[in-house]
Specification:
The complex is a heterodimer of chains A (599) and B (305).
Chain A lengths: L6 E6 L4 E6 L2 H7 L2 H12 L13 E4 L13 E7 L6 E7 L1 H8 L4 E5 L6 E6 L2 E6 L8 H11 L6 E4 L2 H4 L7 E3 L2 E3 L4 H7 L2 E7 L9 H14 L6 H5 L5 H7 L21 H8 E5 L9 E5 L5 E3 L2 H7 L8 H14 L3 H16 L4 H5 L7 H13 L4 H4 L2 H9 L1 H4 L4 E2 L2 E2 L9 H9 L12 H4 L13 H18 L12 H13 L5 H21 L11 H5 L14 H14 L10 H6 L5
Parallel strand pairs in A: 1-6, 7-12
Antiparallel strand pairs in A: 1-2, 3-4, 3-6, 4-5, 7-8, 9-12, 10-11, 13-14, 14-15, 16-17
Chain B lengths: L6 E9 L15 E2 L2 E2 H10 L2 E8 L11 E4 L7 H11 L4 E6 L7 H9 L6 E6 L2 E2 L3 E5 L3 H10 L13 E4 L1 H5 L14 H14 L4 H4 L1 E8 L2 H6 L3 E7 L4 H11 L19 E5 L3 E2 L12 E6 L5
Parallel strand pairs in B: 1-4, 1-6, 4-5, 7-10, 11-15
Antiparallel strand pairs in B: 2-3, 6-9, 7-8, 7-9, 11-12, 13-14, 13-15
The chains are: A alpha+beta (599), B alpha/beta (305).
Chain lengths: 599, 305
């Protein structure tokens, strides 16, 4: 077999036993690797209705066919499990050297089930998997854990993915982190913590041959060259923080828990200002020519990585305009291992509730929009699950349910996952993408906003044409996430499906057409939905927070623009139609058969 | 135009160190009547005053001018600080104080204000219910009062007027020299700027081609802003101009953008850059017409992240 090892490692933490299992070639052809393979394994290994933080919920790490081929931006891995935030699928990506090492230990996936009786870490070297005590790692941050495991084993080449304090405490939006990067959304770190699994440490030398090394090298060279052109200039020269000032001008920057679509102090926290005042250096993942990461220096001299979503969520969404506070808040989130979007979203909910008198405990902590010190204090309390932090660690949906009915109106989430930094009322295609995504309010599993930013549609008015755009975007992203190729390279392909199908052929030796690849993308998207349906999905889950459907935008260029329930419903119906699902969003048998997904 | 020689017993002080935040670019450098606005104002005042002082913020860019340049020690402290430092640098005891955003200087009115100083410390016009402290005459005798105001944090000049001998010039007096109060027409926004340009053309109607031009603002984001080292530029274009004309003029103004933001043919943007007009619509067709007052955003075409 080329491009894959053709097997995966199953580790049962309850018994401490591990076993190698074969991966059938047909499954790999149907789902590739990454999130596709992860979803397929999740569907098989998660008992229906499994409680996300129970021993039975599988935590799945997957590699992918392009990993290790030298193709730019492909050093990535996926983590797939049932989300403790949404009770639906959680599929997260992270990248860099851990991803390369995962493939080098000779496996296409790790399926981890059970729960260790005391804290452990999983050490895999070559063929051998071993559970080791993590007593001395417990309560350490992910990066401290990485350092300690390397030191204990006297091997600086060991690669580690770990959880921080928040994961140990099962904060429902905890991350898994490696080399400063995070599998961030959906609470995968909480699942790992619930298993008493502190870290996974890898050391391997296995090589996976590709079918046509010369052919792969030629495409790799061409893509490398294209990755350095004007199409990626934003990522190479300023990073994703560039979004903030633009979104503000477009009335698309969620501010103060979506009360506003522009931020009075946008300039102070814009990517341009940060670059001018705080830029420290840029860096990139392993095997990447784009190098989009930006490290900014705070007054204390500490460096902190910042992306747009973190900047938006801990800045404008919480009414914070001091870059120092945002940098400190981001550092704390990284240190404890919590998702910055869900952290900002949950805190913004608490701030609004405090201001409206619904959450006196938050008011006592001084939690109000723009109050940076209170925000920093609360991040630590969340990670520790102490005081009000124990409530906020549940995420905005559960925290609102604990607070009372009225508070739910201000909780800005879809399916329990907090909203990213794209204002749905002024980005109507994105509104649909956010409503129907199997992962919840997610900007990465569909790039529906691209249509809104293209000039091809009226971004302020939804219509029945948006279903096809969102379907196309979801399937495209499912394909990228399963090959795996970074989204920041996506525009560098001349024709994505035909070029990528050729890549799959040259890596695996299979005959694989662009039509095959398109169907694979659709199959993966559909299986995610099928998993959610099995876990209790109902049509009401594909919806947006009431605030967005009740209040018009009140500021900026989109002032007065509304998103009506009818408008959203029309778009959702068009989406179900173009997916060949029934009018309530359930998948007919005929569609499952067409995609080879018969249960 | 005055045929008199400029006086050397009076100085002129121009405050040019404001933030220009609503304009989106340095007001002092806005093109006006074929030159940067600050140069236009200095040239006009040089006909009255031999000694002209320009007060700017630390590190502020300013073209070479025949003036005494004073850098305010603390940026953006407000007009009191600017007046104080201007008076300190002025060679004469009496100074006219103006700002860099008032293009229609009425020299007859300025001369009249100067003539009224006599036994006063300040001569200040009162127009449409407001004092006009940045079109007024000050003696050096007010400096201790200004200094004390700065210490107390009283940053508005009008606090001075009831402490010193102030001659208030009321509207009726002003209208004798400046019936429409054009002297107080300052510019804070791109719209103000455009209106001022239009008015200038009406007053100096010599060229019909110029008269039919439009003015738009191009705001730069991300890569474009970092490369150009500026947030916005104002472009004057022929009526009926389209985006092609905008890109061409922008390339002319900011050649550093050619290749990285503007395509080498100067008629379109490179792949990866997009254009939005007035924050509303993303425009893909370069032949789209531009209207006077339009704000054109040059942004990354990729909103991912």
């Amino acid at each position: 077999m080329y491009g894959f090892h053709g097997r995966f490692l199953h580790v049962d933490l309850s018994t401490g036993r591990s076993s190698w299992r074969e991966l059938e070639e047909s499954r790999l052809q149907n789902f590739l690797g990454g999130i596709g393979l992860g979803t397929s394994l999740l569907y098989e290994f998660a008992p229906a209705g499994v409680e996300p933080l129970s021993a039975a919920n599988p935590l799945i790490f997957t590699s992918a066919p392009l990993v290790g081929t030298g193709l730019t931006t492909t050093a990535k891995y996926a983590v797939v499990t049932k989300s403790p935030l949404t009770n639906f699928i959680a599929d997260s990506l992270s990248s860099s050297f851990f991803a390369l090492e995962l493939k080098r230990v000779g496996t296409d996936a790790l399926v981890i089930t059970g729960r260790a009786s005391s804290p452990v870490y999983l050490f895999i070297e070559e063929e051998k998997a071993e559970l080791r005590s993590a007593d001395n790692l417990w309560h350490k941050s992910a990066s401290e854990t990485e350092t300690l495991i390397r030191a204990q084993n006297e091997d600086p080449a060991i690669r580690v993915a770990a959880i921080g304090l928040a994961g140990e405490n099962c904060v429902r939006f905890a991350t898994i982190s490696n080399e400063g990067r995070h599998a961030g959304r959906g609470g995968v770190g909480a699942v790992m913590g619930s298993k008493n699994l502190k870290a996974i440490a890898l050391r391997g030398h296995a090589q996976v041959p590709v079918a046509d090394p010369r052919g792969v090298a030629a495409i790799a060279a061409s893509l490398r060259e294209r990755s350095l052109g004007t199409l990626t200039a934003k990522y190479r020269e300023i990073g994703t923080v560039a979004n903030l000032a633009v979104f503000n001008q477009l009335g698309a920057l969620p501010t103060r828990n979506f009360q506003q679509a522009t931020f009075d102090h946008a300039e102070a926290v814009s990517g341009e200002s940060l670059t001018e005042n705080n830029f420290s250096r840029k860096q990139g993942c392993a095997s990447c020519t784009i190098r989009c990461e930006r490290l900014f220096k705070s007054l204390s001299g500490d460096e902190q990585r910042l992306e747009y979503e973190t900047l938006f969520a801990l800045g404008p969404l919480c009414g914070v305009h001091d870059p120092e506070i945002v940098l400190q808040a981001a550092r704390l989130c990284d240190h404890y291992g919590i998702d910055t979007i869900s952290t900002g979203g949950t805190l913004a909910w608490a701030m609004e509730c405090a201001e409206k008198g619904l959450l006196p405990e938050a008011a006592e902590h001084g939690l109000r929009f723009g109050q940076g010190e209170a925000l920093l204090q609360m991040i630590s309390l969340i990670a520790e699950r102490s005081d009000l932090g124990a409530v906020l660690a549940e995420g905005s949906r559960r925290a609102a349910a604990l607070t009372g009915d009225e508070a739910a109106y201000w909780a800005m989430h879809v399916k329990g996952l907090e909203m990213p930094g794209y204002e749905p009322r002024s980005l109507k295609t994105m509104a649909l993408g956010l409503a129907v995504s199997p992962r919840g309010a997610c900007h990465n599993r569909s790039g529906a906003y691209e249509a809104d930013f293209s000039g091809a549609v009226d971004r302020l008015r939804g219509d029945a044409g948006r279903g096809a755009l969102v379907k196309g975007s979801e399937d495209f992203n499912a394909t990228l996430d399963s090959l795996i190729v970074c989204k920041f390279l996506r525009k560098c392909f001349r024709d994505f499906y035909s070029e990528s199908a050729e890549l799959v052929e040259r890596v695996t030796g299979w005959r694989y057409s662009d039509a095959d690849l398109r169907q694979t993308g659709e199959r993966i998207s559909t299986l995610k939905k099928l998993f959610n349906i099995r876990e209790g999905w109902q049509p009401a889950d594909d919806w947006l927070p009431m605030r967005l459907l009740s209040e018009p935008i009140r500021d900026g260029v989109a002032q007065g623009v509304e998103l009506s329930a009818d408008e959203l419903r029309e778009m959702i119906e068009s989406y179900y139609r173009v997916r060949d699902w029934n009018e309530n969003g359930f998948i007919p048998e005929s569609k499952l058969r067409q995609l080879g997904l018969e249960v | 135009m005055s045929n008199k020689r400029p006086t050397d017993d009076r100085s002129a002080i121009i405050l040019a160190g404001g933030r220009s935040s609503r304009m989106g670019q340095a007001k002092a450098l806005l093109p006006f009547a074929g030159e940067p606005l600050i140069a236009h104002i200095v040239r006009s005042l040089k006909e009255l005053f031999a000694d002209v002082v320009v007060v700017v913020a630390p590190d502020q860019e300013i073209p070479a001018l025949p003036v005494t340049l004073v850098r305010d020690e603390v940026a953006y402290q407000g007009p009191v600080s600017g007046i104080y430092h201007g008076l300190k640098a002025a060679k004469s005891d009496v100074s006219f104080v103006g700002s860099c955003d008032v293009p229609f200087l009425n020299r007859t009115l300025i001369s009249y204000l100067c003539s009224q100083i006599r036994d006063h410390d300040v001569v200040v016009p009162y127009w449409e219910g407001r004092y006009q402290p940045l079109f007024a005459i000050y003696k050096k005798s007010v400096m201790p009062y200004l200094h004390a105001q700065l210490q107390r944090g009283e940053l508005r000049p009008i606090f001075l007027f009831d402490k010193v001998r102030t001659r208030k010039i009321d509207e009726e007096e002003i209208r004798r020299f400046d019936p429409d109060g054009l002297s107080f027409l300052n510019m804070n926004t791109p719209e103000d700027y455009e209106a001022a340009l239009q008015r200038w053309r009406q007053l100096h109607r010599t060229n019909t081609t110029e008269d039919q031009s439009i003015v738009c603002t191009v705001e730069l984001f991300g890569v474009a802003r970092l490369r150009a080292k500026t947030k916005a530029v104002t472009l004057e274009l022929p009526r009926n101009a389209d985006l092609v004309k905008v890109f061409f003029a922008l390339a002319d103004r900011l050649p550093t953008l050619v290749g990285s933001v503007i395509a080498p043919d100067r008629e379109s943007l490179v792949a990866g850059q997009a254009c939005n007009v007035n924050g509303r619509d993303f425009i893909r067709d370069s032949t789209t017409k531009i209207h006077s007052g339009d704000r054109i955003f040059i942004v990354s075409a990729d909103a991912g992240g």
